[in-house]
Amino acid sequence: MAEQPQPISPVKNFFAGGFGGVCLVFVGHPLDTIKVRLQTQPKPQPGQPPLYSGTFDCFRKTLVGEIQAATGETKYTGSLDCAKQLYREAGIRGVYKGTVLTLMRDVPASGMYFMTYEWLKNILTPEGKSVSDLSAPRILFAGGLAGIFNWAVAIPPDVLKSRFQTAPPGKYPNGFRDVLRELIREEGVASLYKGFTAVMIRAFPANAACFLGFEVAMKFLNWIAPGL
């Protein structure tokens, strides 16, 4: 007799998804910092080299800079302090700065992300088997490729978002349109793909870990609470 499919549980999906998110951040966060540094580095003056020559140069300089900053004064003591200062400077708009650009990035990119993951899971499932029986290597492969497809769509709006959020108040009165015009005018279309190498190095392992964490957590929750 065929095994009955496990009913969808919003509670289990919430906690399993949260665990997958923890796995993604744990694996991918260092390179996310490098990505933002590369995306927001200023345009070099004529005859001067750029602040970072590439992903690995940025990693080295960031590591050295953080070590030196550990003995000096920091602007924010933590996430809450940062939120307080942003709210004090610009109100609730300061805390939500870049929301439109984040939506422009995440809506199409997330659609590509989950579409690719589900498509690859179905392709990788052997005939006569259930998708839920996929092995860990196949889940890692599907999740990693889904991450690459996600960021292939997300990089341009992510660059605009990083630039807009780190700009001084009032620099871009018309929002992302001003950021886009400035980048294209001063640095060309290729500037919309700043941080590409760091993003792609991060995308596969981080998102592979995310989906593997989700699937493992879901199996665990189904085991300990089958009726939830």
TrEMBL record:
PROSITE patterns: SOLCAR. Pfam families: Mito_carr (PF00153). One of its GO terms (cellular component) is cytosol. GO terms for biological process: carnitine shuttle; carnitine transmembrane transport. Solcar repeats lie at residues 8-123, 134-220. InterPro entries: MCP_dom_sf, MCP_transmembrane, Mitochondrial_Carrier. Keywords: Membrane, Mitochondrion, Repeat, Transmembrane, Transmembrane helix, Transport. It is a multi-pass membrane protein. It is found in: Mitochondrion membrane. GO terms for molecular function: O-acyl-L-carnitine transmembrane transporter activity. Transmembrane segments: none annotated. Belongs to the mitochondrial carrier (TC 2.A.29) family. This is Solute carrier family 25 member 20. The lineage of its organism: Eukaryota, Metazoa, Chordata, Craniata, Vertebrata. The gene is SLC25A20.
